[in-house]
Specification:
Bound molecules: zinc ion
Order of helices and strands: EEHEEHHHEEHHEEEEEEHHEH
Helix content: 10-25%
Shape: globular
Largest sheet: 7 strands, mixed
Number of helices: 9
Strand order of the largest sheet: 1-2-3-4-5-6-7
């Protein structure tokens, strides 16, 4: 599943490698209502789609799914969340165990780029205490100073370890297919950018990665179901409801989903768009 790619802009520079990892299978009840297939009471298969990028001898994770601390102490995730989402919490699916299984030293994971800090995305941060965590400033502000019921119940500081090395990025940046784009890890021999897509959370971002096969856009939780970036949008009712319940800003979330549909329509051949939790998109990556 390794994709060997050269950078666009530096002929002769070392290739980067991108591997797709599932760092946390979840099996909520209600497959028909969530993923549109299976029985009403059947369990859905949902993934925590992360990326491991190797560039210039350094490793970069995009999101971390669940971590060792979640597997050792599932209670920290909270009973309502666990009952609704049914995370399987298999240690072998954690990012650190998968990095080790691939023959890497986890200390070589120098950077984590976070789409957002919900507990199904940030659980592995504490497993990489030497890594810088790159994220949009608005997301860190929301996680550190949550406001309102939805924000107050979604973030788990316990997952971040002691003294996390946050690297915040503010608004601004370059144009990327009509979206704002903020380059991260400027010294790295790979072009990786935060694409602000707020709505699901206050500072939610996609992460764009430049490869010689085109761009990858990890859209995080900007959408949940593959049909949501089709025109017209398709989404089973359970997922519609789940996204509405968990949204920080519905207007922005819907507007950004519309922009992603437009991106898929107009630049689908140049940009491979996928989200965090759709197993079909993960399996075909
Ligand atoms: Zn999520």
């Amino acid at each position: 599943m390794w994709l060997l790619v050269d950078r666009f802009q530096s002929i002769g520079s070392p290739p980067i490698e991108v591997r797709h990892l599932n760092c946390g299978t979840m099996c909520p009840i209600g497959a028909k209502l969530l993923v549109g297939e299976g029985g009403l009471l059947a369990k859905a298969r949902i993934v925590a789609h992360c990326l491991l990028i190797e560039a210039g001898g350094e490793l970069v994770l995009v999101d971390t799914g669940y971590g060792l601390g979640d597997c050792a102490n599932p209670k920290r995730l909270g009973q309502p969340f666990r009952s609704m989402v049914l995370p399987q919490l298999r240690e072998e699916e954690t990012a650190i165990r998968q990095v080790e299984a691939l023959g890497h030293d986890p200390k070589d994971v120098r950077h984590i780029v976070a789409t957002h800090l919900d507990r199904d995305h940030a659980g592995g941060i504490g497993d990489f205490p030497g890594a810088e965590i790159h994220l949009f400033a608005g997301e860190l502000a929301a996680a550190q100073n949550p406001s309102g019921f939805t924000e107050r119940q979604r973030y788990l500081a316990e997952q971040w370890g002691e003294n996390p090395d946050w690297v915040e990025y503010g608004a601004g940046g370059d144009d990327w297919f009509g979206f704002e784009s903020i380059r991260v890890i400027p010294g790295l021999d790979a072009e990786i950018a935060l694409i602000p897509l707020p709505g699901h959370t206050r500072g939610h971002c996609g992460v764009a990665i430049n490869t010689s096969d085109g761009w990858l856009l990890h859209a995080g939780d900007a959408f949940f179901f593959n049909g949501e970036i089709e025109t017209p949008r398709r989404c089973p009712p359970g997922y519609r409801l789940f996204q509405t319940i968990n949204q920080a800003d519905g207007e922005k979330r819907h507007a950004n989903q519309e922009r992603l549909r437009e991106l898929e329509r107009e630049h689908g051949a140049e940009v491979d768009i996928f989200c965090s939790h759709d197993a079909k998109m993960y399996d075909s990556a």
